[in-house]
Amino acid sequence: MIRIFLPIWVILKDFIFGLPFSGRIKKIVIVLDWGWRYFSRLLDVLFPPVCPLCHILTAQEHQLCPTCQNALPPPPDHYCLRCGSYTAKMEPGCAHCLTNPMTSDAAYFAFRYQDSAISLIVGFKFADRSERSVLLGALCWERLGSELTWEAPDMIIPMPLHFWRLLRRRYNQSALLAGELAWRLQRPMVTNALVRCKITTPQTRLNAQARMKNVRGAFRAVEKRVRGRSIMLVDDVMTTGATMGVAVAALKKAGAARVVVVCLARVDQERTDSISMDKGVPYA
Asked: Which residues, 6 or more positions from 53, have their beta carbon under 8 angstroms from its beta carbon?
């Protein structure tokens, strides 16, 4: 966990050098910077980087070993390319989204929500492993980089958490992931354009009907920030699509010109069906 402070120091150093401090203070900062560099190397010796799944040594931090990398699940292979709903085959639009202007314009998923993807995402989301955002962002970009570059959105918006839940969890995993993608796309990440204005029950153990009722009216988009803009909405996992659907509708209602959805993983159709049949299970 000490490694997390190293990038924070880099940001702080750049900030200090941008201020009109005296040469003496900047010399002290340079000395401290060298200290951080040697401290980082010492950490690599004392605590060498390991694969977060199998814990064998890796060449660098935030990296999977070749075996775990090759074992990652593939993306889902049959869903609506607009809203992400499961279909019999890859479709450019399902019956629902073709008649509903409030659905997303495109949906992208890096993985199926199974096997090692579950281990990585659950730790990232629920076990305080926020540093995994670097790895997951890189994996997401490896799978979807060309498509996301082609989309060229005006802004990246993470799925927001309500203030009290953010206070309790201490970080928004979707915002960390969105930041990684925004950095690679060289586009701004905007966190004040979509607001979660309603405290909702956690979705993890609700069935499909209860999920939809739970998130109804949960989001409000700021019209002056989204009107006429192309938006990439980022979340970690799509299960039934209830939360994402309501968030997209709020953005479209506020005048967003285009909204594309990007998720790390899509829950398998069989698991989604089990939720729809009132068998709520803790997936996302």
From this structure: 64, 65, 68, 116, 119, 120
